[in-house]
């Protein structure tokens, strides 16, 4: 564990709290992609299946439980509690285009051809692109509530912080995980456009609006 | 190299 990794994980936690806070205070899941949230549940369940056979640490254990539980809770909020506030007509990204390639890639590029290992790899590839339905929705509507942009910024920061974490681990522990790194770089790259608008508009006190 | 880190990241 190093500082980058810890800050990354805390940023990830923060993003989830921000999202739940947004849904509960506005009593609405407007602007949030159900598809992206459903993909995150898939990612966490596929990756953290190792809860049953691999012990890493208490920290690791509780974080995994939290990510699975909170992501399922968010789906519940969107699907049942605040269902009328979700507009499926603007959340139309075809998730098959993400899940399909993630399955195929994980079958080809993995460390070991074993069921749980392939699930782990699949979860890494899927997480890399899971934000796309959300970004697509943002692009379509061209604007976002400020709180939603804070959620995305925290989520993007989590991914960005994992990069110095890998560099640090390379030098201190001699650990290199090419699958996680390549997928992580792709994932972080997807946030660049968003970050540009976030820093130049939202943090200057303006509303998040994309040029028409 | 590879999964040497034992997938200890979240």
TrEMBL record, chain A:
What's in the keyword line of the UniProt record? Endoplasmic reticulum, ER-Golgi transport, Membrane, Protein transport, Receptor, Transmembrane, Transmembrane helix, Transport
Compartment(s): Endoplasmic reticulum membrane
**Molecular function as annotated in GO:** ER retention sequence binding
Q: Where are the transmembrane segments?
A: 52-76, 119-138, 150-167, 179-199
Principal location class: endoplasmic reticulum
GO terms classed as biological process: protein retention in ER lumen; protein transport; vesicle-mediated transport
This one is known as ER lumen protein-retaining receptor
Q: Which organism is it from?
A: Coniophora puteana (strain RWD-64-598) (Brown rot fungus)
Question: What lineage does the source organism belong to?
Answer: Eukaryota, Fungi, Dikarya, Basidiomycota, Agaricomycotina
